[in-house]
Amino acid sequence: MDCDTAKALDRWVEKGAKPTVGRLGGGLGQINVIAGYSCRTRNNQAGAKISEHGKGRAIDISGITLANGKTISVLDGWKKRSDRKLLERLHKTACGPFGTVLGPKSDRYHKDHFHFDTARHRGGAYCK
Q1: Residue 25 belongs to what domain range?
Q2: What residues does the Extensin-like C-terminal domain cover (predicted)?
């Protein structure tokens, strides 16, 4: 992971994730990362452009684990009303520190995780 992405992740954890989780389950215990640097194309599709993962500028998060050990996954939590609200807030708070924020509503490739990257777009952050 490059320095800008590491700094964006730290900003999101400190100013987005921790305040969003608050005291729920004793607070945020762990961010569950399923992908970081990976030299591959976007969505692993042949002929596609190099993914931001291949440039060290992206991270994929499958969920969080609370201090009490409860895990809230994007895949399962998105279907539960109580967990979905928390996950939607976590997703929203990443928009700003990161230039691209994708989740279950974006496409079939992101149904089980959040994709955060530091790519910049002309119109500002792209969050879906």
Answers
A1: 3-127
A2: 1-128
